[in-house]
Amino acid sequence: MKETIYKLIHFGYRQALCCIFPAAIFITLALSKQLSIPWLPRYDFILIVCLLIQVFMISFKLESLDELKVISLFHIIGLCLELYKVKMGSWAYPEFAYAKFSGVPLYSGFMYAGVASYICQAWKRFDLRFVSWPKNKLSYPLITLIYLNFFTHHYLPDFRWIITLLLFIVFFRSSVTFKVNTIGIGKVNVYRMPILLSFALIGFFIWIAENISTFFGAWQYPNQKHGWHMVHLSKISSWFLLVIISIVIVANLKKIKYPDQFS
Hints:
Blueprint: H1 2-18, H2 20-34, H3 42-59, H4 65-87, E1 100-101, E2 104-105, H5 109-125, E3 129-131, H6 136-152, H7 160-171, E4 175-182, E5 187-194, H8 195-215, H9 235-257
Antiparallel strand pairs: 1-2, 3-4, 4-5
């Protein structure tokens, strides 16, 4: 029992370190809702803080330059999705900002960058290894379909469930191993989890984070226009799919430099 508690403490500590970037964003969202700077709109204040967080992560070597490239890629991917979704009325950013384009404040890309940052941090802090990882000729077409479906479902049928079925076929045999130290004992424990379960768990926790973000006014869904309401459960499937895009891109970039982490 004592050993289990030590494991949980270390696991929680490592997870907290992995969440430095997204946690800092949440704290900024909360503080910015209470603070009021006359000459600086809230969304612009959040953008400035996000940039400072990124500088902090690099300056203190919490992230490498290679990881910054990956995170920046997700910032761009997320921003493109935001521009389209806001235009289609899926959600909105009602407050004024100078750094705002087509209704989308530039800080919004950092929400997606925060997910990429978590993945990169977890990779090294838990010494992730992937078993039966699918080949690029299978994974890349799938994540392309996922990303395109976020755009096309406004005009065509939503194919997310067909795509999800394909994901189960492609990733059914895949799993991830991670290491957890036992504090005070010095023992290293290796655990294994089906990769699809890890996708689902990350998607679920992002959905919880999304509820917190909308509560603090980071953005606004149509049903939240006259007051905050819990984000619909169906959004978990959206985050599940978006997480897969993130992990596949990060994993395949890592595979180039660290092929021994894949089997």
